[in-house]
Amino acid sequence: MNTAIREYNEAQDIGDKVICGTLAVEIDRGLPEAESKIWHRHPVWFIYCNTKVGYSKLKAGIRLMFWSGASFDEPGLTPGTGKFKDASVLYNSADEIDLKNLKRWLKKAREIQWDYKNLVKRKGVLERLK
Question: What is the pTM of this model?
Fold first, then answer.
C-alpha cells in the first residue's frame, strides 16, 4: 500500500480506519496496475494518469467514489449530481462493504472509462475512452 495512503488511513478514527484500510487493500488487489497517491487530500487510484476510484471522509461517513461510476449501471452506486460521470457509495461501518460488489465495480472501473485526464484541455467536455 502507498505510504501516504497508509498514513491517511491511520489518521482516521477507529471505525473509519477499518473502512479505509479495507477499501485500500481491495482497490490495490482489484487494480494492481493502478498508480495510487493522495490527490486533493484523499486517496485516489489512476490508470494511465486517468482517475478511477478514490475515497474520502465526509461527515456522513466514508465515501467511495468511482469517476466513471454513473456508466456502470449498478444499483448500489449513487450517481453524482453534476455534469460528470461519477457515482459513489457511503460507508459507516466496514461490515457494510460488500466485497462481491466492490470487486465487480473495480472491474468496471477498468473497463468503462471517461477521459478525465484531458478534461481541462477539452474545456470541460468528457469523452468516453472505453
Answer: 0.91
